[in-house]
Amino acid sequence: MSTLRPFRGFRPQPQFAAQVAAKPYDVLNSDEARNEAAGNPLSFLHVGKPEIDLPPDVHLYDERVYQKGKENLEKLIRDGVLLEEKVPAFYIYAQTMNGHIQYGIVGCASVAEYLNNTIKKHELTRKDKEDDRTKHVRVTNAHSGPIFLTYRAEPAIDAIVARVSAGKPEYDFVAPDGIRHQLWVIADAATVQAVADAFTRVPALYVADGHHRSAAAARVGKELADANPQHRGDEEYNFFLAVLFPAPQLRIFDYNRVVKDLNGRTDEQFLAEIRKVFTVSPAAAQHRPTRKGDYGMYLKGRWHVVTAPASLTAVADPVERLDVSILQKHLLAPVLGIDDPRTSKRIDFVGGIRGLGELEKRVDSGEMAVAFAMFPTSIDELLAIADAGQIMPPKSTWFEPKLRDGVVVHMVS
């Protein structure tokens, strides 16, 4: 059983929606965010990445950053850019990218279910990033960006989404990156109750993207519960903002790797080492993997096809047979000395949305020595690992399209 609760969201007036909606805080660095928000005082980047309104030498985690985010959010509300919903509501949020459309339900998920693992995770969090988002929620008193959850499809939910989305949306705009965003409001009591009832038939929810945000929301919720002698369990801080998509609609992109050096080896020595485990053959052009156990490797201006043996791709353990695990355990660690990709400064990760040309650019510039193009992790692999209570290696999944911040905001109290 899963809980999804309606709420009185703060959201842009329709004429401001396209200006307010912004990419999430963690897909842009500060300079990119400054450029993206330039000339647009309504961009929600002023809330999600408020350092863009402070001098560049102010540290990302400086207290002034969080206070600026609070100030910017309160200004959007005070100026009437964001208005509060009159009644508790759910929302349908649709995204269209390259002809593919996915429909999510926006609502509030349960902190208690996050803590008892009814909401399942598949990644570890980094303390500095979790602390950052915790401070952001604490100071702004808001869940300003939604957590991306998924679930195994439920026909009753699909039917409600199909019926509501057949009507005219409240928002309908195409962002500068070409992705279309639409929002429908579910405010009538009968449909709101039908949505909540349908989710009680969903056995579990899964964090697809947003592990740091969800961990932060749970921390703040527990802090406020512990500090409230009249705590009941139905206060807003017991719930966090989420968009829930059925798993069959989701697409996971490749999450590729680039490494700074060959760990003291020449090109020939490096190739000889990896051939002890993998099959390596030259590629005539860019090689985008087409199946599990298949990797593209870019080294000194040339692409290679790297193939893992069946003995590695067919193991029973769902984590060990992931392509990212095989590469890490049998190449990155023993050959390139990348023992912990979460902390190593010699490895970087490139979302598949940037294309294979980005891998070539990073290597050809001399910044990196070798790049690996990955076959995407599947949604079924993600669910199986979360169901087993296991953790994926870092940077295993890259979801597209990204949810926009500021489409709907949930106030914590």
Structural account:
The chain is α+β, with helices and mostly antiparallel strands and 413 residues long. The protein folds into two domains: 260 residues, no CATH class; 121 residues, 2-Layer Sandwich (Conserved hypothetical protein from pyrococcus furiosus pfu- 392566-001, domain 2), CATH 3.30.1760. It is built from 14 helices and 21 strands. A hairpin with a 5-residue loop joins strand 9 and strand 10. The protein starts with a strand and ends with a strand.
- The whole-angstrom Rg is 22 Å
Mean of all residue-level pLDDT scores: 96
**Major sheet characteristics:** 9 strands, mixed
Structural class: alpha+beta
Short description:
The chain has 413 residues and is of the alpha+beta class.
Task: Give keywords.
globular, 2 domains, single chain, nine-stranded mixed sheet, 23% strand, six-stranded antiparallel sheet, Conserved hypothetical protein from pyrococcus furiosus pfu- 392566-001, domain 2, 413 residues
List the helices and strands and how they pair.
Elements: E1 4-5, E2 10-12, H1 17-20, H2 30-37, H3 45-48, H4 63-78, E3 82-84, E4 90-97, E5 100-110, H5 111-115, E6 119-120, H6 127-140, E7 142-143, E8 147-151, H7 155-165, E9 171-174, E10 180-186, H8 189-199, E11 205-209, H9 211-227, E12 239-246, E13 252-253, E14 255-259, H10 267-274, E15 279-282, E16 294-299, E17 302-307, H11 310-313, H12 323-332, E18 347-351, H13 356-364, E19 370-373, H14 379-387, E20 398-399, E21 410-411
Parallel strand pairs: 6-11, 8-12
Antiparallel strand pairs: 1-5, 2-3, 4-5, 4-10, 5-12, 7-21, 8-11, 9-10, 13-20, 14-18, 14-19, 15-17, 16-17, 16-19
Helix pairs in contact: 4-6, 6-9
